[in-house]
Design a protein that fits this description.
The complex is a heterodimer of chains A (422) and B (251).
Chain A: H1 3-15, H2 25-38, H3 54-57, E1 80-85, E2 88-89, E3 98-99, E4 102-106, H4 116-119, H5 122-126, H6 134-142, E5 147-151, E6 159-164, E7 171-180, E8 185-191, E9 197-206, E10 211-219, E11 225-234, E12 239-247, E13 251-260, E14 266-276, E15 280-289, E16 295-305, E17 309-318, E18 326-335, E19 341-350, E20 356-364, H7 368-376, H8 381-397, H9 403-419
Chain B: E1 2-11, E2 16-26, E3 31-35, H1 42-50, E4 55-64, E5 67-68, H2 74-79, E6 82-85, E7 92-96, H3 97-111, H4 119-132, H5 137-141, E8 143-144, H6 150-164, E9 168-172, H7 180-193, E10 199-204, H8 208-212, E11 217-222, E12 225-230, H9 233-241, H10 244-250
Parallel strand pairs in B: 3-10, 3-11, 6-9, 9-10
Antiparallel strand pairs in B: 1-2, 1-4, 4-5, 7-8, 11-12
Helix pairs in contact in B: 6-7
Classes of the chains: A alpha/beta (422), B alpha/beta (251).
Chain lengths: 422, 251
């Protein structure tokens, strides 16, 4: 039996009994066709070499207990607060879906002829080349719910989403579509233990000069398996900034697929991940520069202990004609013991001759000299270690523009470090 | 204040004896200088006293106001009033200088069972001390020692000393890498901290620092021992004749 038929069979088993949800029928059907052509990911696929997809491929999800269902972050923010429970929008627990400068809707209840009908799955589909992302196609086909957000001007306040779950074995597929018109501005916040097994997609289409900020926190459910994709398409002079905090999780694969379609745009994607023990975290990023004078930054840092594993696969593709591209990529891991592991695969592929692209990847332990310096000033060992770990992650948090949000994230990091001192 | 008796220290990694019986007694309010050629063990002495890893004490003792210094963790030594101004101050990217100072100050207060200093009082204090050392707001905001010039780093050490108000200050080659003006500024900072209850151990290669920070006692260290002790005139003797004569004398 060839590899293709193994994959097809695995897919057939995985899909057994699943039916396409209502709505967005055409997009779901073509996504299912894409998925069928690709099959499920396997260890032999280049981009799944470091991350074993078998827990995602399995028919049954493994139960994962939630250690803290509380929404600790962004609580002081003036935002439209929305709640999803087990992958379904909970209107009763949420604020009204009204926000000046924004049209808010839900995937599960979108009426026929909704604007998102043409957008749903479009960027995901475009993002399947040159590298297949089967779980994203799966998501478009089977997403149970999600937000449909059309921003026409400057949003009066952020939308802050909290994911909750009632079942330890919740298997959730969520898909958000976000579209910003020319010059529009919007901030999107996400947090909470969405599912024992989560498949999450956001498609973000930024028209000329649009500005989008995204901050999310994944965490506190130790056994979680998650695969997430962000597909961003940037028009001229658009700004895209995304930061992800990941604490804990048995398996997390965060993919970001970013395309510069117009000149002078900027995209920064950053992640801080902390894992202790059974933790496998994979950041896979693909940035395509298809227009002139765009700036991309990838800043990913991981703190790993007790056998935790970190993976980074980052690519910058500069197409012919994308002159004056400024591409930057850094991936680093702080290994707090000898058992932990960091695997990095930075890639540059450049077809223009006047570009600036750089990448760096390091892994190492806490600097003994700095540790002694702090202790010699009276800072106790544990506090000094925490300070240096936070300092290591500082570059990623610096990518968050809103100082109050950055402070929230810092506090979350400190809490995690305090809980994982030994 | 500081009593060092017959201190023997080995460098763990190389299994090499560096200090071979150092005895030194510094009283409250006194300023002692240690001079000596390269490799005589001056920096080792400062590291052992402040508790750096990698050294093992094979014999002897060191006490601060009667308490066994060598049994304490580095942070406890600091809270008990010991301060080492580093020869090479460490750069810590990602930690703001202000955060660093405040964390250190409050950690020491906590260890001593004192309440934390309020944000307002801290700000007032740090501004006042920084001004005297010509440290501007930008240097306070930047990450610890990152991108600082040699002079700025040494001034930053003295600022930490001024903020933490230790009783026993060890200055390890604070003059290295300083031009004349910077040395003057740093010395003024140190002199401003001289008081009846505060003692200094100034480690240096050169006499010129001692023109600015006037010592009460000068020790000459060579091959892991104090080979001669005298008044300030001993430093001048070294400046004029080098170490060769002194070394020949003891051999």
């Amino acid at each position: 039996m060839g590899a293709a038929s193994v994959k097809a069979e695995a897919l057939a088993t995985r899909l057994g009994g699943l039916a396409l949800p209502d709505g967005m029928t055409a997009a779901r059907e073509t996504a299912l066709a894409r998925l069928s052509a690709m099959g499920l990911p396997g260890k032999r696929d280049e981009y799944w070499h470091y991350t074993d997809p078998s827990a995602l491929n399995a028919v049954q999800s493994k139960p994962a207990a939630v250690s803290d269902n509380g929404a600790a972050l962004f609580s002081g923010m003036d935002a439209v607060k929305l709640v999803f429970v087990d992958g379904v929008f909970d209107a009763a627990a949420s604020d009204d879906l009204t926000l000046s400068g924004v049209s808010l809707g839900c995937l599960a209840t979108a009426p026929a002829g909704h604007w998102a009908q043409t957008a749903y799955g479009a960027l995901e589909s475009a993002g399947q080349n040159p590298i297949a992302r089967p779980w994203a196609a799966f998501n478009t086909a089977f997403a149970s719910d999600g937000l449909l957000i059309h921003v026409t001007g400057k949003a009066a306040k952020p939308v802050s989403v909290t994911y909750l779950r009632r079942y330890d074995a919740a298997n959730v597929v969520l898909h958000h579509v976000i579209k910003l018109d020319a010059g529009a501005e919007f901030t999107f916040l996400e947090q909470g233990p969405a599912a024992a097994r989560l498949n999450h997609v956001i498609e973000i289409d930024l028209a000329e000069g649009a500005r989008f900020h995204h901050i999310r926190a994944q965490g506190r459910d130790l056994g979680r398996h998650a695969v997430t994709h962000i597909f961003a398409h940037l028009g001229a002079e658009a700004l895209f900034k995304s930061f992800t905090l990941t604490a804990d999780g048995a398996l997390t694969r965060n993919e970001a697929v970013i395309t510069f379609a117009g000149p002078d745009a900027k995209a920064h994607v950053a992640g801080a991940a902390m894992g202790d023990g059974a933790f496998h975290h994979d950041d896979t990023v693909f940035v395509t520069h298809a227009a002139e004078r765009c700036e991309s930054r990838q800043v990913f840092k991981k703190v790993l202990k007790h056998g935790a594993v970190g993976v980074f696969q980052g690519k910058i593709l500069v197409k012919k004609g994308a002159q004056k591209t400024d591409g930057y990529q850094i991936s680093q891991a702080l290994l707090l013991d000898d058992d932990s592991q960091f695997l990095a695969k930075p890639e540059l592929e450049i077809y223009a001759d006047d570009v600036k692209c750089s990448h760096g990847s390091t892994s190492g332990a806490i600097d003994d000299t700095a540790l002694f310096y702090l202790r010699s000033r009276g800072v106790p060992l544990r506090a000094a270690q925490s300070l240096l770990i936070l300092a290591f992650l500082a570059d990623t948090i610096a990518e968050i523009e809103d100082e109050a949000i950055a402070e929230d994230i810092r506090a979350q990091l400190e809490t995690w470090l305090a809980r994982h001192e030994s | 204040m500081l009593e060092i008796k017959n201190l023997h220290v080995k460098l763990e990694e190389e299994d090499k004896q560096i200090l071979k019986g150092v005895t030194l007694s510094i009283g409250a309010g006194e300023v002692h200088a240690i001079m000596g050629p390269n490799g005589s063990g001056k920096s080792t002495l400062s590291y052992v006293l402040s508790g750096r890893d990698g050294y093992s004490v094979t014999d002897g003792s060191a006490t601060l106001d009667g308490a066994d210094l060598l049994a304490m963790e580095p942070e406890v030594r600091a809270a008990q009033g010991l301060f080492l101004a580093f020869q090479y101050p460490v750069e810590i990217p990602g930690v703001g200088n202000m955060t660093f100072l405040r964390t250190a100050l409050n950690a020491q207060r906590k260890t001593r069972g004192e309440p934390e200093i309020s944000a307002g009082d801290f700000l007032k204090l740090v501004r006042e001390k920084a001004k005297a050392l010509k440290i501007d707001a930008d240097m306070l905001k930047r990450p610890v020692n990152v991108g600082f010039s040699g002079g700025e780093k040494k001034r930053n050490e003295i600022l930490q000393m001024a903020m933490l108000e230790p009783k026993m200050c060890i200055l390890d080659e604070t003059d290295s890498g300083l031009d004349v003006d910077a040395m003057k500024l740093v010395s003024e900072g140190v002199n401003a901290l001289r008081s009846a209850g505060r003692s200094f151990l100034v480690i240096t290669h050169y006499q010129r620092l001692l023109d600015h920070i006037k010592p009460d006692v000068v020790h000459i260290m060579a091959a892991g021992r104090i080979i001669k002790t005298g008044g300030p005139e001993l430093a001048l003797e070294v400046e004029n004749n080098g170490y060769a004569d002194l070394l020949a004398e003891v051999q």
